[in-house]
Design brief:
single chain, about 260 residues, 9 helices
Length: about 260
């Protein structure tokens, strides 16, 4: 009998919209508290400063508003689970745009205010199935907003670590980010010999090999959401996470080091 086909995960569009707005609001409040000394610190992302990272965070949602202002593309080009693998090609453009944005907007609070107002107004009337001409490929608004939870959560964590802040992570945004990156692993390494557990948000099976059908699988990886997100995006190396006991891995197929990161 062939293995059961895995169903694609679905997300509640209303909850994702609320999560994107909530996390952007969290970041806005946190950025308001940053001192000039904090803003000048290295962000540990290439040669960006914390100021440039803070400016970049506005791009995560401004791109939604900007694409809603553009003509709707004729057809969908990119599925949600293809997005994590389509972002690396844009790294150079993103870096250049970020530096320019930070230079042109020294008043970060004013920038955040404009961006927040625009996204709130545009989401109030835009349907979930509206296609956006994203640079990675045309996507539905509903799918694209899920990718925004990844951008916001990942860079909020970057900001907290670089500036020494404690900006909270919206629970729904953290859950969506964790799940999308976990599902991306299952796409990159299809199979059912290894179970990856990221409580309380995700469990996926991946990696080719003998399939388990009941009980505890022979190959298990378990970690917390933030560690998983850092592994999936290259902020933490697999061996480092193991050495620091941030990940538990048992079984001969539980070494995910060769599969990570998923996003560069």
């Amino acid at each position: 009998m062939p293995p059961a086909r895995k169903r694609t995960r679905t997300y509640d569009p209303a909850k994702i919209r609320a999560a994107v707005l909530a996390q952007f609001g969290n970041v806005r409040q946190g950025v308001r508290t940053l001192t000039e000394e904090q803003l000048a610190r290295p962000a540990r992302l290439g040669d960006w400063s914390v100021r440039e990272l803070a400016a970049h965070l506005t791009m995560a949602v401004e791109t939604v508003s900007r694409n809603l202002d553009r003509p709707e593309p004729a057809a969908k080009e990119l599925a949600l689970l293809e997005w994590p693998f389509a972002t690396a090609a844009r790294a150079g453009d993103i870096a250049d745009g970020t530096r320019e944005l930070a230079h042109d907007n020294p008043d970060l609070d004013a920038l955040y205010t404009r961006v927040e107002q625009r996204i709130t107004e545009r989401l109030a009337t835009a349907p979930d199935d509206r296609l956006l001409a994203a640079r990675t490929g045309a996507m539905t608004l509903a799918d694209y907003l899920v990718t925004r939870t990844v951008e916001l959560v990942v860079h909020t964590d970057d900001l907290n670590r670089a500036a020494g802040t404690d900006i909270p992570l919206d629970r729904q945004a953290l859950a969506a980010c964790t799940r999308l990156l976990a599902d991306a692993l299952a796409v990159k390494a299809p199979g059912a010999s290894t179970e990856v557990r990221i409580p309380p948000y995700a469990v996926v099976q991946c990696v080719e090999g003998p399939r388990h059908t009941r009980g505890t699988p022979p190959n298990v990886v378990e970690t917390d959401p933030l560690t998983w997100i850092r592994l999936a995006t290259g902020r933490t190396e697999w061996k480092t996470a193991l050495d620091e006991a941030k990940v538990s891995a048992s079984g001969e197929r539980a070494d995910l080091g060769g599969l990570l990161p998923l996003m560069g």
